[in-house]
Amino acid sequence: MSDTHQHSIRFVRESMLPEQEPPATERGVIKWMRENMFSNIPNGILTLIALYAVYAILSGLLPWLLNGIWDAPSIRACREILDGQTGGCFAVLTERWNQLLFGFKYPNHLYWRPTVAFVLLFVAIAPVLFYNTFPRQMLIFTALYPFVAYWLIWGGSILVPIFALVGFGVGYIVYSKYVAQSFAMGFFGGIAGALVTWWLTGMIPVEGVLAMEAVPSRDMGGFMLNLILGTVCVSLSIPFGIALALGRQSDMPFIKWICVVFIEFIRGVPLITLLFVASVVLAYFLPPGTNFDLILRVIIMITMFASAYIAEVIRGGLAALPKGQYEAADSLGLDYAQSMRLIILPQALKISIPGIVNVAVGLFKDTTLVSVISMFDLVGMIRGPILASTEWNGVYWELLGFASFLFFITCYGISQYSQWLERQLNTDHR
Amino acid sequence: MTTLSDPPRESFRLSMLLNDTRYRSYTFQFIALLCVIALFSFLGYNLVKNLQAAGLNISYKFLGETSNYDINQTLIDYSSQSTHWRAAVVGVLNTLLVAFLACVTATIIGVVAGVLRLSKNWLISKLMAVYVEAFRNVPVLIWIIIIFTVMTAVLPQPRDFRGENATASMWFDAVAFTNRGVYIPKPVLESGGMAVVIVFLLSIVGVFAYRRYATKLLYATGKMLPTGWPTLAILFVPALLTYFVLGKPISLEMPVLAGFNFKGGINILGSLIALWFALAIYTGAFIAENVRAGIQAVSRGQTEAAASLGLRPGRIMNLVILPQALRVIIPPLISNYLNITKNSSLAIAVGYMDITGTLGGITLNQTGRAIEAILLLMAFYLAISLAISFIMNIYNSKMKLKER
Which PANTHER family does the UniProt entry name for this protein (chain A) (predicted)? Predict the structure, then answer.
């Protein structure tokens, strides 16, 4: 080193000091707590209040959960076992498990059928939900699934779903034959083909051909009913919703007017009134002697309800597309059907996914309303047969908590999936 | 004169109805019209045949007949001798009552939860996230039933308030929570009581006038008047003065235990409370998300710009962030109000007598006039939702960004 300072300064440090640890209050957990929980006095007070609230909730909930009784024949037996201690009477869930899931009329020895249908549901929707991970060939099974599931849950002759499938097949063949000429011709031709096939096959007697034991619709119940209503109505309402949204954007005043009136009417009334229509009024409007079962009427009404909401979501997506996209499609010489199918709808639907999922979650929650028109879905089962029975009269919290838990995991799962999908589809470069 | 782009004028051929874009839309609309007419005449024909077979007709005469049923919670005079129409009006008022209460409560809960969810306090923001997710993802019907169960099965019976060693007691000797509802004191207006109410209402107007004057003065001269304590003073001093000058003309009628039940005061039924709070906390979770999205929609640059002007955090929130966030928050907020009104029809699950319970419930079952009753019910909800969306359109066009 140079000795420039040798005379003026007594001491010059020539090597770095070793790094010291930050002070205890500036590192690790303490720092994090100081910054995120006790940054100033009001925050500290809030934190303490929140901690107390969490403690109060958990101290009430945890003993109840952990000390619960899972095996007892009735509430009295359960209370005897508990002997004055805090604890949940979860035995009701184990004892009435099948009723909660399948309703109280579904034949016991057939529980395996809806269970298989439920498991297959995941196989069927997996290639739709995670289209990158699963092979595309699985989509064939997805297309077949509605028919398989119908046959499994309702039973009856296997010919019924097969004929239905054949109708769709004929419709598709007619469609692909004419679609080259014009989309409208292919579309309506396809519908006509399917209808003719169904009409013809309807005349073939199917009683007992390769039949499983049939279960009438009125025997469906429990969480199964919620799942059936939810999946069927959501999947049916998406195509109807798209059609309504396109109709509302259409240049043809009459078509636009029909769609506006339909959408605004449905969105203006509560679902309960529509369910009332299904249960007491709809029969007046059908030909005398027709005997629609209630579940089918409810599916029609809920589908109408959901399609109006989905139409509004998709309309938002259509409106959000820049006008240049429409003009670009026109300038390529695409006609209306082509431009919608190839340019507009793929983008508009992508924008609308979060909204559609919101509607789907809301609809799935709303399927509980069918308990009001005395159908025995999960809530209907709990309020009706189970709480009214002498064994389990008064086991409110265990049952309602279970119902909330089932709905929570389903709806939370769906919304988490939609957030994940949004990130996946986010292809614009930001 | 014709331009080059005009198509050559051909004579009209029938095939042009399908292939020529000029005429095709008319064809489609005509087909649609035919389909709609066919559908409606099919439904109408069936309706007429079914009604004939059942020996019924469509008539609203039942609205004028005696209802013969009681309603346990009414805002206007009603007895079982009143007409079905009167019962329907009681139901409408009950619907509006619970919808109003739930809207106010949901807004308060939602705004608090939404702001707290953005708090820098980790614990608080996580707790609010848990609240929002837990309540959004469980059907409102289950929440209504849960709170109704608390109100009817957990709260003590009126007789538990009785005797030396009562197991339950009233709050401040004024509020009693029983399984037959909550009893609260009832204000009784004696002579001159009206004057106090009027003075209080006038003071509210006065507060607005004062605040307006303060703003005007601030903009005109830059002088800032205090708004905190004068507001309180204007609000309470005149009313209290009149109250004491006129000799305490307003008294409270306390609920007291008499016989097997409480007498006096106002009885709020458990079903109303269940519906009110379930709708409020359920919709509050949705509103919290809207509020959060609205505040996050204001770009950070706005906060920083305001801070660089030297505004304090409270003023940044009031003067810069909130006015911009409200533009994003209010439209979904109003549609949430609409949802509350529609969801209040779930009253029928807990036996609260709203319009669905009276007109769509007991009246329908007693008279068997299903079509008429449900049409009327739908018309009522439709009128409310159209009115609310009308208000929303006015608001939207007023609040639209004025772009140059």
Answer: INNER MEMBRANE AMINO-ACID ABC TRANSPORTER PERMEASE PROTEIN YHDY (PTHR30614:SF41), MEMBRANE COMPONENT OF AMINO ACID ABC TRANSPORTER (PTHR30614)
Residue B205's CB: how many other CB atoms inside 10 A?
10
Same domain, B116 and B87: yes
Q: Is the dihedral of CA A176, A178, A179, A181 positive or negative?
A: positive
Shared domain for B128 and B193, answered yes or no, is no
Q: What whole-number distance in Å separates Cα of residue B363 and Cα of residue B87?
A: 8
- CA dist B158 and B163 (Å) reads 11
Task: State the ipTM, two decimals.
Answer: 0.87
Check if A260 contacts B (Cβ < 8 Å): no
Q: Token digits for B317?
A: 């929130």
- b/e for B66-96, b at 16 or more Cβ within 10 A? ebebebebbeeebeeebebbbbbbbbbbbbb
Distance from CA of B184 to the nearest CA of A (A): 27
Q: Of all helices (H) and strands (E), which one includes residue B256?
A: strand B256-258
How many domains are there within chain B? Answer: 2
Which amino acid is located at B388 in the chain?
I
Angstrom distance (rounded) from CA A307 to CA B46: 26
């119908």: which residue's tokens? Answer: A150
Give yes or no for a contact between A227 and A377, defined as CB atoms under 8 angstroms apart: no
Element (H, E) at B181: strand B181-184
Q: Alpha helices, DSSP H only, in B224-349? A: 228-245, 270-297, 300-308, 313-315, 322-343
- Encoded tokens for B47: 């309706």
Query: What is the arithmetic mean of pLDDT over A323-341?
Result: 88
Give CA–CA dist B280/B135, Å, rounded. 11
* Interchain proximity A268–B386, CB inside 8 Å: yes
Which pairing describes strands B176-178 and B266-268: parallel, antiparallel, or unpaired? unpaired
CA B211 – CA B227 distance, rounded (Å): 7
Mind listing the pLDDT tens digit for each residue in B120-175? 888 888 999 999 999 999 999 999 999 998 888 878 777 777 766 666 777 767 77
Instruction: Convert the pLDDT of each residue in A88-135 to its tens digit.
Output: 888 888 888 888 888 888 888 888 888 999 999 988 888 888 888 888
Q: Which of B47, B141, B143, B340 to mutate to test the interface with A (most CBs of A within 10 A)?
A: B141
Contact assessment for residue A263 and residue A417, using Cβ atoms and an 8 Å cutoff:
no
**Domain identity same for B97 and B130:** yes
Residues A320-343, buried b or exposed e (16+ Cβ, 10 A)? eeeeeeeeebeeeebebeebbeeb
Q: How far apart are CA A3 and CA A216, in angstroms?
A: 103
Residues of A in contact with B25 (CB under 8 A): 251-252
**B287 located within any domain:** yes
| Conformational region of residue B260, where left means phi above 0, alpha means psi within -120 to 50, and beta covers everything else | alpha
pTM comes to 0.86
The residues in B 190-219 lying below 8 A from A, measured between CB atoms, are none
CATH fourth-level superfamily of A93-106+217-430: MetI-like (1.10.3720.10)
- Whether residues B278 and B240 share a domain: the answer is no
Cβ B107 vs Cβ B286: under 8 Å: no
Using only C-alpha atoms, chain A has a radius of gyration, in whole angstroms, of 30
